[in-house]
Amino acid sequence: MASSAVLAQPARAATGSPAVECRDLTVHFASERRTVTALERISLTVAEGSLLTLLGPSGCGKSTLLRVIADIVQPSSGSVRVLGRTPAETRRDRGIGFVFQDATLLPWRTALDNVRLPLEVGGRHELPPGAMGPAELLSLVGLAGWEKALPHELSGGMRQRVSIARALLGGPRVLLMDEPFGALDEITRDRLNEELLRIWRETGTTIVFVTHSIYEAAFLGQQVLMLAARPGRVREIVTIDLPEPRHLSMRETAAFTAQAAHLRAVLETC
Amino acid sequence: MASDLSIPLAAASGDAAPDSLWIAAQRRERWRRRLLPLAGGALLLCIWWALIAIFHVRSFIAPAPDVVALTFYQKFDMLMANLWPTALEALCGFLLGNTAAIAIATVFVHRKSAEQAFFPIAVLIHSIPVVATAPILVLLLGNGLAPKVSIAAIICFFPTLVNMVRGLESVGAQSMELMHVLSATRREIFFKLRVPTSLPFLFSALRIAASTATVGAIVGEWIGSQVGIGALIIQATYNFDSALLYATVLCGSVFSVAFFQVIRLIERLVVRWDAGVVS
Fold first, then answer.
1. Partners of residue A96 in chain B, C-beta under 8 Å
2. In sequence order, which residues have a C-beta less than 8 Å from that of residue B250 and are 6 or more positions away?
3. A167 and A215 within one domain
4. Peptide bond connecting A231 to the previous residue in cis, omega within 30 degrees of 0
5. pTM of the predicted protein model
6. What value, to the nearest 5°, has the Cα angle with vertex B74 and ends B72 and B80?
7. What ipTM score was computed for the predicted complex, to two decimals?
């Protein structure tokens, strides 16, 4: 914990090639009757070690963009590079961790066995040297002592913590999060927001975080990428100027309020 | 009733004693729930017995419960000798029908075109009553064990096939995306995700199959058979031996219920998670 302040210095960001780079990314979805353009000519760069939040109205393609980066959805045109390679290559190399809107735990597995799942599939049966093990990750997300619990014995917040631990197994350099705290109550959400920042500082992982909450976007993000809807396109990239490390109490400061007000103003034009 | 009221009041005083009172009340409640069905059963038996006695129903039309019990006791060895082949047919049919259903469901999930080609036909065949197909199978397979086992198997097959296909496909979209991000192979997805997801569906089909397999074996024995619960039912009916008929039916029912309970026990041991909670 003492080292976290040092790790949070801007010096850790932007070394070498960008973690994620999209150029003129376009995604069409074809249904039976018509073709919908989900994303149109998106270009963005996410520096290694940074935390970018994606904010926009529903239907703006935030989740689609995240899924293109994770090689779940194929782009119709344009290019995507993750850690300097194609998304598929990086995925196969376990360079990407993904946290879904629902915890998506396997209900027949204990918390620990759920975190261990990535070691049982995809031909990756061993952790890279120096990477945190399943038990260590569970205590990183604050669930030490809950290793043997089944998902239905955990609260919604705890389940989502387990899924974050699972996504962090193997030490992926890019962590993609799709509205992970959207279904949680506000108190749990606040707590997990602060803990996510701590985990980010301690692991140095690049995080792309999708949300539709202005406060969450401003509190977590070093930068906020704002998307407009129908078709999804970049409206503005806002840099959030808040002192690091951030704490929940900062949300009452004038600086934070001003940032949030700006985001809200832009969001109204999306 | 008065004692029930006193429990929450005592609990409010915060002594150690109310806890034991509460536990005792819980225990009483549990026993009540166990005993009431037995009391209900006993009452119905009494009504049965009284009806026979009051209306002087003759024993070859319908026997009194005590006569049935006596017959059950006296002819126990003979009943068991006839239960054995029926149980064997039901069990073999159960294993055969369900194994085939699980195997075909697995193929359907992996080959969509196979599912689209054959699933509607499966549903169509399923809608034909077994009693109608039974003579066909007896003609095809002769008089031995084979037609009975096949009828029991067919009767188990369709519900399990339908449920298993549904179970294997009830995997959430996000779970599939998770497996994709982890670069899991189809095989890994099947064994680590689809099969466990399908287990609650499978067991609800197996529970039904346990009862229907017995029905299938008995129906098979109705047509040209010398031994078995089904054959005994036919013989007892033709001989107006209603006491034996009732005892035979009782024997078959006890087996069927026991089979059902065994499957339920296995289900409880295997499906330990709460299938209702989607995480």
1. 181
2. B68, B72
3. no
4. yes
5. 0.80
6. 60
7. 0.87
